Amino acid sequence: MLHGYTPPHRYLPYLSWTQITELPDRANTVIILAAGATEQHGPHLPCSVDTAISSGVIGHALARLPATVPAFALPPITYGKSEEHLHFPGTMTLTGTTLLSTVTEIGDSVYRSGFRKLLIVNGHGGQPQVMEMAARELRLRYGDFVIIPTSVWKMPSGLGAFTSEKEKKLSMHAGHGETALMLALAPDTVRMEHAVANFPDEFPIKLLSQDGRPACAWTTRDFGPSGVIGDPCGATAEQGQVILDSLSSHWAQAIEEVHQLQWAPRAESTWGRSHQNGHIEQFPHP
């Protein structure tokens, strides 16, 4: 079914428009948009990793929520800005402009439906800036709209207990953490017999990169032919379950706190966006 990892009663598209209209507190109901991608993740993982992880963690978090907390998931975004992987088959990428418009227009629809809290949970490392730009644009359009763009990995995960110092320092893609989580979320899609380790050299200019990660623009092909940037070889399903439990429990707490959040609300009538000619029109604050 369409809801995937999300409990059916927490999946917004399963409600009718009249049920949405009748929700008792739409202004404080948390709407969650998981943002993923369809892109290569090495020879051992499927191209669905970023979408599976963002929607899977949020789905498990929603399952943990008390019934008294109103929160619903939207269908995840399954295509992202993945140009850094386009040399590898299976990568389906949008331009930054298209993704920015997609997220912004989804936000418009969320607001138009009467909701005032949108949590964007991103699972792809190549597009956080786009999510932040969309959130800022929406904030400028609607002064009483709270939009939080963040990463699915923002919460404590426990991953550090299972990884080497080199992995913590240099891993960026298809490494230990993503592999372990996929072994917990979708084990049938993982082929550990094809897992390989691959790390980039540390960036030589310490003033520009104190942690050794590349400071210049890069594509995945710059680091070798496997598509892996990290070491997935020691990942296990048991580790993945620990990581999933930690992430989802902390996300459940965060969603509950977003529901309770009251942050800088402003009436739309006194601070909004004019869509004519695409410019921002500022109105005096009360």
CATH topology: Rossmann fold
User: How far do the termini sit from each other?
Assistant: 47 Å
CATH superfamily: Creatininase
Note the beta-strand portion.
5-15%
The helix content is 25-40%
Number of domains as seen in the coordinates: 1
* Highest CATH level, the class: Alpha Beta
The whole-number mean of residue pLDDT values reads: 93
Structural class: alpha/beta
Order of helices and strands: HEHEHEHEHHH
Shape: globular
Sheet with the most strands, sense and barrel status: 4 strands, parallel
- Total of helices: 7
Give the C-alpha Rg.
20 Å
Strand order of the largest sheet: 2-1-3-4
Low-confidence stretches are 268-286
Report the CATH architecture: 3-Layer(aba) Sandwich
Number of strands: 4
Descriptive report:
The chain contains seven helices and four strands, in the order H-E-H-E-H-E-H-E-H-H-H. The chain has one domain: Rossmann fold (3-Layer(aba) Sandwich), CATH 3.40.50. A four-stranded parallel beta sheet has the order 2-1-3-4, with helices on both faces. It has helices at residues 17-21, 49-64, 96-112, 128-141, 165-170, 176-185, 237-260, and strands at residues 30-35, 71-73, 117-122, 146-151. It is α/β, with parallel strands linked by helices. The protein starts with 16 loop residues before the first helix and ends in a 26-residue tail after the last helix. 32% of the residues lie in helices and 7% in strands. The model is unreliable at 268-286 (pLDDT under 50).
